[in-house]
Amino acid sequence: MLDWIKVGTLSDIPRLGARTVETAQGQVAVFRTSGDEVFAIFNRCPHKGGPLSEGIVSGKVVVCPLHSWTIDLATGEATAPDEGCTRPVPVKLVEGEIWLELKAGLKVAHG
Amino acid sequence: MNAALRQKLVVIGNGMAGMRTVEELLAIAPARFDITVFGAEPHPNYNRIMLSSVLAGEKEVDDIIINPRVWYAENGIALHTGDPVVAIDRAAKTVTSLSGLVVPYDRLLLATGSKPLMPPLPGLELPGVVAFRDIADVEKMLAAAEQKQRAVVIGGGLLGLEAAWGLRRRGMPVALVHLMPTLMERQLDVEAGHLLQKDLTERGLHFFTGAQTEEIMGLDRAEGLKLTDGREVPADLVVVAIGIRPNIDLAKGAGLDINRGIEVGDDMCCSDPAIYAVGECVEHRGQVFGLVAPIWEQAKVCASRLAGRDDANYQTPPLSTRLKITGIDVFSVGQLTAVDEGDEELIYRDSAKGIYKKLVLRADKVVGAVMYGDVADGAWYFQMLREKADVAAMRDRMIFGQAYADVSAKGKGVDVAAMSDDTQVCGCNGVSKGTIVKAICEKGLTSLDEVKAHTKAGSSCGQCSAVVQAILSHVTGEAVEAKAAGMCGCTDLPHDEVRRVIVAQELKSMTAVRKALAWRTPDGCAKCRPALNYYLLCAWPAEYVDDSQSRFINERVHANIQKDGTYSVVPRMWGGVTTPAELRAIADVADKFQIPTVKVTGGQRIDLLGVRKDQLPAVWADLNKAGMVSGHAYAKGLRTVKTCVGSEWCRFGTQDSTGLGIKLEKLMWGTWTPHKFKLAVSGCPRNCAEATIKDLGVICVEAGYDLVVGGNGGIELRGTDPLCRVASEDEVLEYAGAFLQIYREEARYLERTAPWVERVGMDYIKKRVVGDEAGRRAAFSRFVYSQKYAQIDPWAERVLGVEAYEFQSLAEVE
Ligand code: SRM
Ligand SMILES: Cc1cc2nc3c(=O)[nH]c(=O)nc-3n(C[C@H](O)[C@H](O)[C@H](O)COP(=O)(O)OP(=O)(O)OC[C@H]3O[C@@H](n4cnc5c(N)ncnc54)[C@H](O)[C@@H]3O)c2cc1C
Ligand code: SF4
Ligand code: FES
Fold first, then answer.
1. Do residues B578 and B670 share a domain?
2. Which of A1, A105, B3, B483 has the smallest C-beta neighbourhood within 10 Å, fewest atoms?
């Protein structure tokens, strides 16, 4: 079953930055763009599993810190010529609060 | 065409020749055949030429795949890898593979390549003896490079030299044994061969020329070579690269006409009209092959014949040779020397620069060229040779190159505007300038990669890429040229211009820069943001607020990210000196946080590896308590100052090198620089601190201190250039600080001192740092001023809570 779960507020994430959320399915990276849009994808680069949350964000892409693949924040796809995809997580922003759609949430720790 | 009407084509050999023929065939007759390919190797087809680059660590195996498996699938080709064909039944028109597959054919293509020539030496079968032909060989060599001590290569031709160089790049001591007195004697004359040997000796290869191997020594595995003159060359890895021999086993078994290779006519057909052959396995008019350029011609002709056209005939083109060793430029074509009185040699020699060029003329036509050190005009000489051009009119100028010989040519380098359309640009693929220009115009190509993909120019050995790029720029106009020089995709402006404007217009934020210079993207990108952040910080040390989101992760969290996402922590160890108390504190931290690895670094300090991100502030807090600060092992900034023991202890020490190193480190720590900056101070010319491969080195002598700059021990080894000698420690600090500040202000982001010094020249640096006393003092005080804002321990700040969000997750959801 899927559930919308509140994970924090927009101001918790620096502009052009990311924070991580620990979930039962693995770590999710939540990104904030310069225009205050929010995106969430699983925090594993399709190349060799690099932590995408640690990359440099610009526009709607993040550059992986390990070997510089460029990943599209909306789709989780690597941009050509690299190939691969990491799974996006549905995310919404309601009155400054960030919600992720995840498998049945039981509890939310520090927010 | 209906599938049922298709004929069956079976290709034996999934290598360069076979698959090029299939590509050509698909281009002109995509529906004519059902194609089955057998390959003995387990891989899809790859660029064998680039094995040298894989060995040298310049490319990965993945990078050299020409057609991945999906390509076969997309084109409906049945591919059987790792399954060699073992028999051909010409009467039944079938082939049988090792795994037992029996596949019928209407047309059969043999492309089995060649086998390495193995001399009948005792010991040849020992483990540790390899050839240099395929991926499996390279893997064996790499495995050996990881474990074993020494390598010896037998054979000083193209292949042997590239093998030796690759192993050398992998850190093995390498000796090369060659039968002839000079290297590459089939492609180079004696003089060029000597120059090559001299250069490679300087790069650390050892040569035994005029040396014949008697046996490979060793009981259970290779232990070295014994030469016929009694000398022994110890080695754990023996690479045999003395030549190749066409792989004709299968054709022989099938009763086809063979001599040295499988005999083919001008139509690439064998003695059986249903069977064709291409590549290194064939013999055409008495000639066998070992380079791809003629093989690509064969592939074209063969594809055309298979497609049912009968007008294509193969003729061997003149061939040129190049050696793929980065930084060594060799070119040769045609005759290497004058053979009789009718021939003339024109020679140009610049021994200081290591340049040698020779043209061989006969009846006012170019019949050969050998070039070493400067090969820019190779393509031009080659063209004149092919065109049999009469060169009488420029005979006395042409050895200086096209720019001098050709009055219409201007500037230096290759003049692509003056180049005629039929000038061959890519020798491997036989692509002319005209073909490239046509593809660029018709298909609207804008990048080198696109041109490679559409024309194949530059896609084999890659040596002509610069010329292809020049043609692209020429055809598409100024825009591309400017783009090539721009900082990144967000702007066409080059680094130096952006920097000039930042200072001239007093731009003090990234947004201001992007606005003033009309950036194409609102945020910039991962390339330009770190550069702009640095330029602003350097220009306005007191005012600019660092943008941590524009920093690479290591600089953002002040630790080095590791491949598993954990971090490493390297505390500063001033001048490489530590104390029992510091060591105890490090040991306590390692215990307390269960740090998996504690390692002494190559920079004279200690690395704690495998720290989780959320542990970092606590680890730093404990280190801070013991008086230790960040070592900036992650920074484009001051790294280590290595020292030796010096006059305090060493019986040869002339000055207190340890103390001076610490003073330099205290002066410079915390500074941000275009790329990392490393120092070393040695107490005497024995140079135990390796000062001559550092960005800045000090070598103490009785009379004072020799300052040396621009060294690099990394990817491209470069020894320092001497700057000057000074008499006192205070002067060392002033000169070093001034040098560092000028580097900070003038080098481009990510340009280390070595390439910077080469770009601007030592004369310029001496003029600024040594010659101009007032300028030096001013630069030094600008440095000291900026240090006021830089010398704040980033670890201590974060222990106090700066950017705390960096080290915590946002939430945990179960
Ligand atoms: C830790 C250390 C290896 C060790 O265990 O000894 C090391 C580790 C790394 N080096 Fe190094 N280098 C280390 C000493 C060196 C040295 C030796 C020296 O400084 O005397 C060199 C050659 C000298 C030189 O720089 O001229 C060296 C030449 C490089 C290079 C090539 C630089 C070049 O200009 O060619 C790179 C790649 C780069 O910077 O782009 C590199 C890059 C790296 C990186 C940062 C690779 C990366 O991007 O992840 C490694 C970080 C691992 C980590 O997180 O700790 N490392 N590296 C050494 C740290 C010294 C220290 O105390 O800070
Ligand atoms: C390290 C190295 C560097 C080189 N550098 C250059 C260079 O700079 N410039 C240049 O022009 N040339 C270079 N060459 C030469 C070039 O690679 C060859 O000329 C070219 O690969 C020949 O193509 P081919 O298809 O005839 O043979 P290959 O590419 O060898 O292909 C033959 C294939 O057939 C397979 N095969 C053999 N028998 C069977 C069977 N019975 N059943 C199924 N499969 C079989 C083999 O396993 C092999 O994969 C280099 C070669 C090497 C090894
Ligand atoms: S520490 Fe340096 S030499 Fe060792 S693997 Fe990393 S980058 Fe390469
Ligand atoms: S793990 Fe992301 S680019 Fe390699």
1. no
2. A1
Cα(B548)–Cα(B555) distance, integer angstroms = 8
The model carries a pTM of 0.53
> Is B168 a member of any domain?
yes
Among B10, B140, B280, B329, the mutation site with the greatest number of ligand 2 atoms within 8 A of its Cβ is B280
Chain A interface mutation, best of B509, B548, B613, B809, highest count of A Cβ atoms under 10 Å: B809
Q: What pLDDT is attached to residue B3?
A: 52
B648: three-class secondary structure by DSSP: helix
Contact at CB, A109 and B812, closer than 8 angstroms = yes
Q: Do B559 and B569 touch, CB atoms closer than 8 A?
A: yes
Q: Residue B109 forms beta bridges with which residues?
A: B11, B276
Residue B137: how many CA atoms within 13 Å on its side-chain side?
19
Do B223 and B235 meet the contact criterion of CB atoms below 8 Å apart?
yes
Structure-token match 């693949």, residue found: A69
Choosing among A53, A56, A61, A102, which should be mutated to test the B contact, i.e. which has the most B CBs within 10 A?
A56
Secondary structure class of B78 (helix, strand, coil): strand
In angstroms, the CA B145 to CA B172 distance is 6
Residues in chain B with pLDDT < 50?
A: 1, 407-413, 478-484
The answer to whether the Cα torsion of B281, B285, B289, B293 is positive or negative is: negative
Q: Which residue has the tokens 């390509």?
A: B71
Instruction: Write down the pLDDT at residue B477.
Output: 66
Residue B350 tokens read as 């610049």
| B277 shares its domain with B178 | no
C-alpha pair distances (Å), B201 with each of B175, B442, B464 = 10, 48, 27
- Residue A104: pLDDT band (50, 70, 90) is low
Q: Are B654 and B773 contained in the same domain? A: yes
Structural domains counted in chain A: 1
Task: Go through chain B and tell me how many residues it has.
Answer: 814
* Tokens found for residue B280: 């290194």
Task: Identify the H or E element spanning B599.
Answer: strand B597-600
Same domain, B646 and B748: yes
Rounded to an integer, what distance in angstroms lies between the CA atom of residue A62 and that of residue A70? 6
The ligand 4 atom at the shortest distance from the C-alpha of residue A45 is: 2
Residue A24: domain span: 2-110
Structure tokens at B145: 């490079």
CATH number of the domain where residue A106 is located = 2.102.10.10
Give the atom of ligand 2 at the shortest distance from the alpha carbon of B51.
Answer: 1
Ligand 2 centroid, distance to B446 Cα (angstroms): 32
B507 and B601 belong to one structural domain = no
CA distance B541 to B197: 50
Q: How buried is residue B23: exposed, middle or buried, by Cβ count under 10 Å (0-12/13-18/19+)?
A: middle
What one-character DSSP code corresponds to residue B522?
S
Q: Which domain holds residue B46?
A: 3-114+246-306
Cβ-contact B740, B678 below 8 angstroms:
no
User: Which two tokens mark B694?
Assistant: 């550092």
Q: Is residue B47 part of a domain?
A: yes
pLDDT digits (tens, 9 = 90+) for B349-405: 887 778 899 999 999 999 999 999 888 888 889 988 988 888 888 887 888 887 666
Asked if the structure places residue B34 within a domain, the reply is yes
Q: Which residues of B513-551 are buried (b: 16+ CB within 10 A; e: fewer)?
A: bbeebebeeebbbbbbbbbbbbbbbbbbbeebeebbbbb
Of the candidates B369, B367, B471, which has an alpha carbon nearest to the alpha carbon of residue B421? B471
- Of all ligands present, the nearest one to the C-alpha of B170 is 3
Write the secondary structure of B549-569 as one string of H (helix), E (strand) and C (coil): HHCCHHHHHCCEECCCCCEEE
